[in-house]
Amino acid sequence: MYMKFIPIALVVLSSVCYHVSQKSTPSGLNPIVALIVTYVTASVVSILSYFVFVPKSDLVGLLEAIKNANWASLLLGFTVVGLELGFLLAYRAGWNISIAGLLSNTLVALMLIPVGLLLFKETISLTSVIGVVICITGLIFVSR
User: What pLDDT, on the 0 to 100 scale, is given for residue 110?
Assistant: First the structure.
């Protein structure tokens, strides 16, 4: 049961740190340079994590594993840059940390409903529809 919630806890903790870091990035730092520092750090952490968490790992194994990546990993790289740059620019434009994440994540959640229905053949319940209405109502209140 706990293993189901540990990943969500990691996402929540990481997201809070993410938004605090984005909001705390110096305004004089070029946004692209900020991204370079971010991704060099992320690359080092990812490579080290591979060697720590993958049993009997070595460089050859890492290179072999990379061969299994498909278009989704490449697209994820582009989209993460868009997310990072978008939030950095939003905060520099004056968005409050308490509103920018809420607004964008709610809009993303609403947009993922038709994606889930159409691309992944997911279903939606009456409870979910009620949740959507509540989200839209919340967006109206938050954006005023």
Answer: 87
- Pair of tokens at residue 28: 């004089």
- 121 φ/ψ sector (left φ>0, alpha ψ -120 to 50, else beta): left
Are the CB atoms for 43 and 121 separated by under 8 Å? no
Q: How far apart are CA 58 and CA 61, in angstroms?
A: 5
Distance, CA of 5 to CA of 11 (rounded, Å):
10
Which residues have CB under 8 Å from 95's CB, separation 6+? none
pLDDT top residue among 130 and 135: 130
Cα 18 from chain centre:
9
How far apart are alpha carbons 36 and 85 in whole angstroms? 11
pLDDT value at residue 140: 87
For 15-83, give the DSSP string: HHHHHHHHHHS-TTS-HHHHHHHHHHHHHHHHHHHHHHHSTT--HHHHHHHHTT--HHHHHHHHHHHHH
Burial 76-100 (b: 16+ CB within 10 A, else e): eeeeeeeebeebbebbeeebebeeb
